Amino acid sequence: MADTQEERLKRDEQIRETIMAKLVESGEKDKLKEMLRDRLVQCGWRDELKEYCKEVIRRKGLEKVTVEELVAEITPHGR
Questions:
Q1: DSSP assignment of 1-41
Q2: What DSSP character marks residue 4?
C-alpha cells in the first residue's frame, strides 16, 4: 500500500528528530557545527557577509537601519 504524502512527511519528521537526538547525544552535532563554522571562515564567507553588512549600514545610515531590516537584507545574500 502506498504511503500518502502526509504519512511520508510525518515519517520524515520522525526520522529527522531521531537523527537530531542521536547527534546531540553523541556530541556530533556540536562537532559538525564547529566544522561548518571553520569552513565558512576559511572560504571567506563570514568576512564577505560582514563586509556586506557594513555596506548596507553605510547605504541606509547607522541611525536609520534596524537589526530586523539588516537581517532581512543580508539573509538572502548569506544563503
A1: -PPPHHHHHHHHHHHHHHHHHHHHHHTHHHHHHHHHHHHHH
A2: P
Cell of 26: 553523541
How far apart, in whole angstroms, are the C-alpha atoms of residue 9 and residue 7? 5
Q: Which three cell numbers stand for residue 32?
A: 559538525
Q: Which three cell numbers, joined as nine digits, stand for 7?
A: 504519512
What are 29's three cell numbers?
552535532
Q: Kindly give the confidence (pLDDT) of every residue in the chain, 79 residues in length, as a single tens digit, with 9 standing for 90 and above.
A: 567 999 999 999 999 999 999 999 999 999 999 999 999 999 999 999 999 999 999 999 989 999 999 999 999 988 8
Written as nine digits, the cell of 75 is 539573509
Instruction: Give the per-residue pLDDT at 3.
Output: 77
